[in-house]
C-alpha cells in the first residue's frame, strides 16, 4: 500500500510539502525452540516474555529433542536449545553448518548440560555445575553486565535476580556479557563463522533462577530474539 502526507505550509518551498511512503506487510518469522519432552516450562516463559513485549515478529515452533532429527535449522530465524542433553547427530551437524553460514543459536544450560563434556554446536567445554548452598550464600547475583551487548542494552538491572544454579563453562576467546558474583560467566557470546552461539549458563524455566519473575526478563528475551535473528 502507498500513502501520501501533505502539509499546507505556505512557504516558498512547496516541493517539501509532500511526502510519499509505502506500507509493506511483513509476515512473522519462525524460530525453533527445542526442549526435553518432560520439561516445557522454559518454552512457556520464553513465549510469554515475547508476548508481553508486544513482539509479533516471531512465531515460536516448539520441538522435543526426539522430534529434531527431521528438522532443518535453515528454515528458522534462530534456534533455542533449552536445557537439552544429547541431540540427534544429524540435527547437531546441521546446526553447526547453520551457524557457520550466519544462523544463531541460544543455549540455556541446566542439569542436562552435565550429561556431556562439551556444549552442543560450539563444543565449548563444560567444567562444573555451580550450586548456591543453603548453608552459604544461598544464591548468586549478576554483578557484572556489559550494557553494550544487544541482549542487555535496554535493561541492565539484573541485580535483584537470584541464581541458584549455573553451569560453569570455559568461554575461551568468546565475549562474556554477564558474570555472576562468584565470577561464573553467565552470558557468553561466541562467534562461529558468520553466526553466533549465545550461551545463558542457567535455565529459562524459573527453577535454577527466578529471572522469569522479574521485569528485566521480558526485554532480555525480546532483545535476544532480535539480535539472534
Report what the structure shows.
This protein has 229 residues and is α/β, with parallel strands linked by helices. 16% of the residues lie in helices and 30% in strands. The chain has three helices and twelve strands; from the N terminus they run E-E-E-H-E-E-H-E-E-E-E-E-E-E-H. It has helices spanning 41-52, 89-100, 217-228, and strands at 2-6, 18-22, 29-35, 58-64, 79-82, 104-108, 126-131, 142-145, 165-169, 175-180, 185-192, 195-200. Helix 1 (41-52) packs across helix 3. The mean pLDDT is 89.
Helix content: 10-25%
Write down the overall geometry: globular
The assembly state of the depicted protein chains is single chain
Lateral arrangement of strands in the main beta sheet: 4-3-5-6-12-11-10-8
How many alpha or pi helices? 3
Order of helices and strands: EEEHEEHEEEEEEEH
Round the mean pLDDT to the nearest integer and report it. Answer: 89
| SSE class | alpha/beta
